[in-house]
Design a protein that fits this description.
Structural class: alpha+beta
Order of helices and strands: HEHHE
Radius of gyration: 16 Å
Number of helices: 3
Shape: globular
Helix content: 25-40%
Length: 80
């Protein structure tokens, strides 16, 4: 049986807000009923994440929608 697919428009924005990243982005997502957030990740080592925290990791666990993290080709942890 063939699946029925609905084509949806994709709207991308690059907002600039000040404040706690978790709260600001969560509020932005909730106010606009956003389905997906795409964010960059630095690729730091696990030790650095423990010491300074990871905004990307926090976003994945606090957002009320799906999150796609994209890791940069350059990784400070490996120097490559």
């Amino acid at each position: 049986m063939a699946e029925s697919r609905t084509r949806k428009e994709v709207h991308a924005t690059n907002p600039s807000e000040c404040g706690d990243p978790d709260r600001v982005l969560r509020d932005y997502v909730e106010e606009r009923s956003i389905d997906l957030v795409v964010a960059g990740a630095h690729g730091r080592s696990a030790l650095m994440d423990v010491l300074v925290g990871s905004v990307a990791k926090s976003l994945v666990t606090t957002l009320p929608c799906e999150a796609l993290l994209v890791r940069s080709a350059f990784s400070p942890a490996s120097g490559v």
